[in-house]
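During the reporting period the student researcher (J.K.) took over the structure-prediction task from the postdoctoral fellow and processed the backlog of single-chain submissions. One of the processed entries is reproduced below for the supervisory committee.
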Amino acid sequence: MSTYHPLTEQEAIQMARSLENFFPADAELGCREIGDGNLNLVFHITDTVSGKSVILKQALPYAKVVGESWPLTLDRARIESEALIIEGKLAPGLVPQVYSYDPQLALTVMEDLSNHTIMRRGLIEGNRYPQFADDISTYMAANLFFTSDLGMNQQEKKLQSGRFINPELCKITEDLIFDDPYTISSNNSYDAAIADAAQALTTDEELHLEVAQLRHKFLTSGQALLHGDLHTGSIFVKEDSTKVIDPEFAYYGPAGFDIGATIANLLLNYVAQEHWHQEEAARADYRRYLLDTVRDIWTQFERKFLQLWEEHGVDRLFNTAAGYKKWYMAQLLQDTTGYAGCKMVRRIVGLAHVADIDTIPDAQTKERAQRIALQIGTELIKRNRQTQSIEDILDIAESAIRI
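J.K. obtained the following structure tokens:
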């Protein structure tokens, strides 16, 4: 079975049964392929006797959304497995445990999180997660600090960054987020109702200048090891637990990209409340919850990141140069703002959208949400270098829904 091929459900059961000291000898294993992404097979293996379960995730050599005409490296499975192991050490309990990795089959065996909910679905259903801001800020602060030149031996960081070059998946990001939405591309996908807004993106020179600078930083700035695709579909949640999954886009890049991606997806749900909470008071209340969460994520991240820097900073000059920490955090917030905007724009006119907005049944309500999302996204991009506080991001979002 070691030669690469996409596993069948029966083969996945055999692989799970071979895990040492995991399932009892009399286990009666059942399997379902539950992957709803574009790049992988995901097998959920459950013992009907003991109730124990496990996840087997296998990379496919192509993107399912396009087919075999879009080949992808299987090495991304190694990158994901290694990233999860690193993240698990730096932010214990905030990622699934990795039990094993098979390089021949591009297969990672990991903890089952079926007792959690995909956060995107939970937000669509109107749920609230009081622990989330604390957890995700801890996850990002620990990972972005301890894999950077601020908190990691700088020679070891250079060696580690070589294991996360990830050119093929970075190319997807470079095209789908920083190029396609701003030109005529076969990868773009949007409703005819917003064709005028999509066209406007291709001729806005002020917007293009800012996107070009954000793209350049994404291509050249290896600040820290990123998750690389940190959206609400890559986060499992309960009221008292958060687990970040799917870091197959992991690579060394600008730290604000992960923070911005997280904020962008909360703001996409924020605009989608045009439908999901139709009663005005309930809609306003849930939107306040979402903006409070955005605020808490940044303020808690900033506090935790600076505390780690104070206690564990490895570079003398970075630690002692007057004003350097303030400058660094200001730059990080500005990057966060710009990348949040890029992620919002891409999810409205690019290849893959978000269910928060795409599943709105009423065409007029959906169009309004799409236009608000584009307005917020483009404003965040254009004003990213003027951002001085997290409140600037929140003001842009609140202003857009009043129109």
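The committee noted the following: Residues 30 and 46 are 5 Å apart (CA to CA).
J.K. will present the remaining backlog at the next meeting.
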